[in-house]
Design a protein that fits this description.
There is one protein chain. The protein is built from 3 helices and no strands. It has 89 residues and is mostly helical. The chain has one domain: Metal-sensitive repressor, helix protomer (Methane Monooxygenase Hydroxylase, Chain G, domain 1, Up-down Bundle).
Length: 89
C-alpha cells in the first residue's frame, strides 16, 4: 500500500514529467536541435528515476519494515534486491 505522502509526491512529479514529455514531442515536431532533444529526454529519464526512488523508499518504510517486524523478511528483501538489479540495468 502506497503511503499518502509518497502517492502525492510521486503524482506531482509524474505530472511534471508528463509536461516534459509533451514538450519533447513538440521539440521533435518543430525540428529542434537534436542535442537539445536528447538533453530533455535525459532529464525526463532522471526525473522518472527519482519517482522510482521515492516509491522504493516508501516501500522500504512500509512493506519491507512490516515484513521484518513480522519475521517474514526474506521474501521482501529478495524481491527488493531483484527490483534494484532491474533498476540499475
Amino acid at each position: 500500500m502506497v503511503k499518502e505522502s509518497v502517492k502525492t509526491n510521486s503524482l506531482d512529479r509524474l505530472k511534471k514529467i508528463e509536461g516534459q514529455i509533451r514538450g519533447i514531442q513538440k521539440m521533435i515536431e518543430n525540428g529542434r536541435y537534436c542535442i537539445d532533444i536528447i538533453n530533455q529526454i535525459t532529464a525526463a529519464g532522471k526525473a522518472l528515476d527519482m519517482v522510482s526512488l521515492i516509491v522504493m523508499k516508501g516501500h522500504l518504510e512500509t512493506c519491507v519494515s512490516d515484513a521484518i517486524q513480522s519475521g517474514e523478511s526474506k521474501e521482501k528483501i529478495d524481491e527488493l534486491i531483484d527490483t534494484l538489479y532491474k533498476f540499475i540495468k
